[in-house]
Each structure stands twice: as C-alpha cells, then as structure tokens.
Amino acid sequence: METGLKNRVAIVAASSQGLGRATAEAFAAEGCRLAMCARNRETLAEATESIRARYKTEVLAEPFDVTDANAVRDFVTAVVQKFGGVDICVTNAGGPPAKGFLATTIEEWRRAIDLNFMSTVYFAHQVIPHMQKKKWGRIITITSVTTKQPVGDLVYSNAVRAAVVGLVKSLANEFGKDGILVNNVGPGFTATDRLKELARSRSVALNKTEKEIFEGWAADAPLKRLGEPRELADTIVWLASERASYITGQTVLVDGGLYKGL
Ligand SMILES: NC(=O)c1ccc[n+]([C@@H]2O[C@H](COP(=O)([O-])OP(=O)(O)OC[C@H]3O[C@@H](n4cnc5c(N)ncnc54)[C@H](OP(=O)(O)O)[C@@H]3O)[C@@H](O)[C@H]2O)c1
After folding, report:
1. N or C end of the chain: which has fewer CB within 10 A?
2. Which residue's CA is the nearest one to ligand 1's atom 7?
3. If you take atom 20 of ligand 1, which residue's CA is the nearest one?
4. Which residues in the chain show pLDDT less than 50?
C-alpha cells in the first residue's frame, strides 16, 4: 500500500517507549522525518539513536514534559526551523493513575487534565497554523478504549479522555476546510510498560497475581490476547496516510474487539 508519507514531517509526542515509540518507528519506516520527545533524556536518546540507525532517517529529539505549554511551543518552533514545517502531529502522554472515584484527589484530577487533555491543546495550538499554510495536516490523538467504554478503576481516564474526543471533533469541524484531518485512536489493553504498571496496581487492589490480571484482560477481548504496540502504530500511520484522506473527526479503536457496543 502506497502511504504517500515519504519525507513528511511527523511529531510523535511521548515517544521514548511504548505506543509512542512504536508510532515513531512506524513513521520512520515510511520515510518520514521525525520529531520525538519524552521527559527522561537517556531513554529518549536511546530510542532516537536506535531509530536513526535502523531507518536512516532524520530525527529531532528534545527532553521535556508535555504538560509544559512553553516547552511544547519551543519544540514545535525547533521542528519547523529544522524541517521547514509540520505535517503530522501525534499527541500522547503517560496515563493517569488507576483509581475508583472516592480515592481520587483534586490535585490528581488537575494533573490528569494537564497530562491527558491540556497537552493535546498545547500541541494543536502550535501545529495548526503551520498545517494551514500547507493546506495539509494530520492530528491524531492517542487516548484509550475508555473514550467509548469506561474501564473500572480508571475514572481519571474515563472522564478526561472524553474531553479529548470533544476537542478532536471540534478541530475536525473547524479545520477540515484547510485540509487538516483530526482523528483519535483508542488502544485497548496493549503490551507496554504502562500496562505492567496497571497490572501491578490492580493485582494489589484485587488480591490476584499479575499473571491473572493479564489473562483477564486478554480474555475480555474477542481476539483473546493483548494488543501489540505495532498494531496501534500501523493504524495511526494509515490514518495519517493518503489512503485515509476522507476520514476526520473519528475515533478508531484498536482493542481486539474489547468495546462491546455496536
Ligand atoms: N498500553 C495500554 O494498554 C494502553 C491502553 C489504553 C490507553 N493507553 C494510554 O496510551 C498512552 C501511552 O501508553 P503506553 O502504554 O505507551 O505508556 P508507556 O509505555 O508508559 O510510555 C509512556 C511514554 O510517554 C512518555 N511520557 C510520559 N509522561 C510524559 C510527559 N508528561 N511528558 C512527556 N513524555 C511523557 C514516557 O517517557 P518519560 O517517562 O521519559 O517521559 C514514555 O516514552 C498513555 O496515556 C496510556 O494511558 C495505554
């Protein structure tokens, strides 16, 4: 399948490991020029070097926290200076803690909003004017299956990610005329470090082993297994590609059928 992505400039936020890293690799494999970030400098440098070596592609990497609006602004400015524009922006961040409602705190709610909603706003604000100039752009948000089907104990994710979907639909409506397509992808349970973290907290809360927790997640999906990061990444590449040129304002779940609705 010809994706038409060669030489496109792709920002992938929070991309030193897990879903973000797999997405960065998938764009590199399509010949995109890449911009990556994460907070930990060493992990980011390791990911960047490995991608440069494997795909022989240009990569700009900056360590910063996506909840810092000024850092996002400076990063996008640096990307435009280096590559002459931004074509694709994949927003991503770490996940909020797993809690039931009465265990939540106001501080953590604010943090979850900053981490999983405001970070998306910061990137969108910065990249859209550059995309408008080119009359071409793709913004793809990584959220969760929780945008369609709330997951027990993930009340921060269930609530805050719904706001991202509202933003995605609004941006799709407002900027479709500029050739900017805005979509959301919702991973189901996918084998990354974040999932190990969730399994640990759930095994304590439910008095089960982590193995039992993983088996339970796999059993919930009709495909009877966890997702692989590459499976989400390939969906993002397809959404960014010329092959998905009439799709905007949508949420695509990559969840092995976990979502039980129609
Ligand atoms: N894996 C799943 O099953 C699953 C399912 C549904 C939704 N999700 C969501 O998808 C997102 C990615 O999950 P994942 O499984 O890939 O997580 P992961 O394996 O923990 O990776 C998270 C990545 O984001 C970076 N990061 C975290 N917080 C950041 C911040 N404030 N600023 C900049 N970079 C940051 C991390 O690097 P640093 O720590 O160095 O910053 C790392 O590169 C999360 O929001 C998660 O909740 C995951």
Report:
1. C
2. 144
3. 194
4. none
